[in-house]
UniProtKB/TrEMBL annotation:
InterPro entries per the UniProt record, alphabetical: RNAP_P/RPABC4 (IPR006591), RPABC4 (IPR039747), RPABC4/Spt4 (IPR029040)
Predominant location: nucleus
GO MF term (any one): zinc ion binding
Protein name: DNA-directed RNA polymerase I
PANTHER family assigned: DNA-DIRECTED RNA POLYMERASES I, II, AND III, GEO11084P1
GO CC annotations on file: RNA polymerase I complex; RNA polymerase II, core complex; RNA polymerase III complex
Chain's gene name: rpc10
Pfam families, per database record: Zn_ribbon_RPAB4
Keyword Endoplasmic reticulum: no
Keywords: DNA-directed RNA polymerase, Metal-binding, Nucleus, Transcription, Zinc
Gene3D superfamilies assigned: RNA polymerase ii, chain L (2.20.28.30)
Length: 67
């Protein structure tokens, strides 16, 4: 196995914290405002009411293995 390969964290139950609600940051397609939307919440901009939202890209490195 390659030593530079991605290795996920192996934190056990001792490192477990209470689950927090899944809040995602979205960008409004009309006005560009940042909106935080939780699960089961209406997808609508809080500034202008527009319904088209873009999901923000993750800041962490994402690596895929090609076949």
């Amino acid at each position: 196995m390659n030593k530079d390969a991605y290795h996920p964290s192996t934190v056990g139950a001792a490192g477990f914290s209470a689950p927090r609600p899944a809040t995602m940051i979205y960008l409004c397609a009309d006005c560009g405002a940042h909106n935080s939307i939780q699960a089961k919440e209406v997808i609508r901009c809080r500034e202008c009411g527009h319904r088209v939202m873009y999901k923000m890209r993750t800041k962490r490195m994402v690596q895929f293995e090609a076949r």
